[in-house]
Design a protein that fits this description.
429 residues, alpha/beta, TIM Barrel, eleven-stranded mixed β-sheet, two-stranded antiparallel sheet, 19% strand, binds pyridoxal-5'-phosphate, binds iron/sulfur cluster
């Protein structure tokens, strides 16, 4: 049997036209989608709806939560304000104003992402972020979308059209110039949105100039994508699927390591024929697939889920890489698990894995000073403490040093932690 599917996006303006969706939702659920979907981006598609969501388990289904807005993703007061605006039949612009007001309350630019935009030849390079010495992030301007939107997305402002919060860049020449001037950089990470929402042709426009330039220090080209989870047909039956795979081969044949950084949130995303075939095809190009995702309530907050997910990934030839904590933006209040719950989930899953899957590191907060791993809890001078360390840091000399914070069972983020026996963390000196 030939696997193929034609992509159909389901958004706020058309989702009620699809019987399967409409028949399975209550009036309240539809109302919630319409209210929350005005503030946070909403998009799903025919693969997610037909092959991933378990429609017998609504509203609890994890994949349903992953792409469909739920009432509680907004704080009550914000929800009611938008609900009121919609019931009063305000015009588009007025609704947009209400939406933007709520959006700005949701910390749309978490963890100082604007501080990561480098200044080069007296210009701010919007479209590049350079936070960690070795790795430069590149945001191509025509991939500021994804095949579906995660309800927890921390890049959400890029999809709702708040201009000053977009990071995107048209040309590769500036990126190349930047790389030529920064010989410490070994990795370029294409990110977005989802770079694989671009056509192979568009992606080629960004990649070929890199391959054609002599950049001796550049070793690894990474692509961050959730296409394997949301649209595996991208690598199977899209018009340019084969061109895309040929492009991957070209990167590998040019001597680079092509690292496909795949975002998987739930083992169900690894169960379809389509995703299995897509993974095989990508790996056959000589690329390696590494996997990452945040741990979240309503989606994947049990050890069993992570254990199954990592085991299946290794079986399919992927390399488990990071488990993150949800960032302090958007609907964080809805998804956040406490640091201690995340540590327990991580350890319980990790101890049941083969060594091949223990490449994974977590749980990790990607915070302003760097990527901080919570190692666990310990007793120091009769005080219970969290042990932490940097996996990545703005200042690379911080990496790997253990440090401690007072145990706080409610803490969900770095701001909730107090340094143990000091008034500042060592990296705040
Ligand atoms: C996570 C991240 C990277 C990549 O870090 P690795 O540990 O090398 O995977 C690079 N830049 C930023 C801003 C990041 O958040
Ligand atoms: S795939 Fe990534 S960028 Fe796209 S919506 Fe999900 S978290 Fe956001």
């Amino acid at each position: 049997m030939k696997l193929e599917k034609q992509y159909k996006a389901y958004t706020l303006s058309n989702f009620l036209k699809y019987k399967k969706i409409k028949q399975n939702l209550t009036t309240e659920q539809i109302q919630a989608i319409q209210v929350v979907g005005r503030v946070l981006p909403f998009k799903t598609n025919n693969y997610v709806v037909d092959e991933l969501i378990d429609w017998n388990n609504i509203p609890n289904d994890a994949i349903f939560h992953l792409t469909f807005p739920q009432a509680k993703m907004l704080k009550k007061i914000d929800y009611e304000e938008m609900e009121k605006a919609l019931s009063e039949n305000l015009n588009k612009l007025q609704i947009r104003e209400v939406a933007d007001k709520i959006r700005y309350k949701l910390n749309p630019n978490p963890d100082g992402q604007n501080n990561n935009v480098p200044i080069f030849e007296n210009k701010r390079l919007i479209g590049i972020q350079h936070k960690y010495e070795q790795t430069v992030l590149f945001f191509p301007s025509n991939c500021q979308t994804c095949h579906a939107y995660c309800t927890f997305c921390f890049r959400w402002p890029q999809f709702v059209g708040i201009k000053e919060l977009k990071f995107a860049m048209n040309q590769t020449d500036l990126l190349i110039k930047y790389l030529q001037n920064h010989p410490q950089v070994t990795d370029v990470l294409f990110t977005g949105g989802d770079p694989l929402s671009m056509s192979a042709k568009q992606l080629e426009k960004y990649l070929l100039p890199l391959l054609e330039t002599d950049l001796p220090h550049l070793q690894n080209i990474r692509i961050g994508s959730k296409a394997l989870a949301y649209w595996p047909y991208r690598f199977i039956s899209d018009k340019d699927s084969d061109d895309l795979l040929r492009l991957f081969e070209k990167v590998v044949n040019s001597g680079y390591h092509l690292a496909f950084m795949a975002h998987f949130s739930h083992p169900r995303e690894l169960e379809t024929k389509a995703v299995e075939l897509a993974i095989r095809r990508i790996r056959n190009c000589g690329a390696e697939i590494r996997t990452q995702a945040p741990v979240m309530k309503h989606i994947n907050n049990t050890a069993k889920i992570w254990q199954q997910m990592w085991q299946k990934q290794v079986k399919l030839g992927c390399i488990p890489y990071y488990m993150f904590l949800p960032r302090d933006t958007g609907a964080q209040h809805y998804f956040a698990v406490s640091l201690i719950a995340a540590v327990d989930i991580f350890r319980e899953a990790y101890r049941n894995l083969s060594g091949l899957a223990r490449t994974v590191r977590g749980p990790i907060m990607s915070a302003d000073p760097g990527k901080i791993q919570i190692l666990g809890t310990t007793m120091l001078n009769n005080t219970k403490a969290f042990a932490l360390r940097f996996i990545q840091a703005r200042n690379s000399s911080w990496v790997g040093k253990p440090f401690f914070a007072n145990f706080n069972p409610q803490a969900i983020w770095l701001d909730d932690l107090q340094p143990l026996n000091r008034n500042k963390f060592f990296f705040q000196d």
